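Our example copied in:
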Amino acid sequence: MKKYFPVLQYINVPNIITTIGLIFGVAACYFLAQGNMQGTLICLFLSGLMDLMDGFFADKLKQQTQFGQCIDSLVDFFICCIIPIGMVHVFVGNYLILFLALAFYCMCGLWRLGYFNVTESKAYFIGLPVPGAMLLVAIAIWAVAFHGLPIWIVAVILFLTGLLMVSFIKLQKYGLWQKVLWVVGLFFLAIIVAS
């Protein structure tokens, strides 16, 4: 079979988990097209969970591959940089400041992922990983869309998270900051599900 479909040689646990994360991202787009923020955010959270798990299993099973790193970055860019464009358009509106903020955020996400791929460290991340940025952006979009906060808050969060993604800060892999983001994410998910 691999003779006819050579990409199958890269099937392993982390790459399957990454692919499941992509499927949750596609489901998020489906809900986004329907204007369903609850479904969109739940699918994005599940995709983020897959992103955490693929790296964990790649480390534990010693199944890190260049292919896996490439597809992980592609899925991260789609989920964490492209989907927010649609979320802002559907749930917040079309304003020049939001266009500029989204362009800056996507540019920083792209550079963050490229930089990660060429400077990966086993112990820490340099700059805020894109899934963490996505969580902060999703919370800002939700707060503006459903709680009447000013639109400029989304623009500010997009600019700030963009800067954090390409900053010099070092964040320990599987450190306290990651646990805090997951607690915030779970709390946010519980609010979304309950609403």
Notes: Residues 66-91 form the longest helix (26 residues). The beta strands are 124-126, 170-172. The chain has a mean pLDDT of 93. DSSP finds seven helices and two strands in the chain.
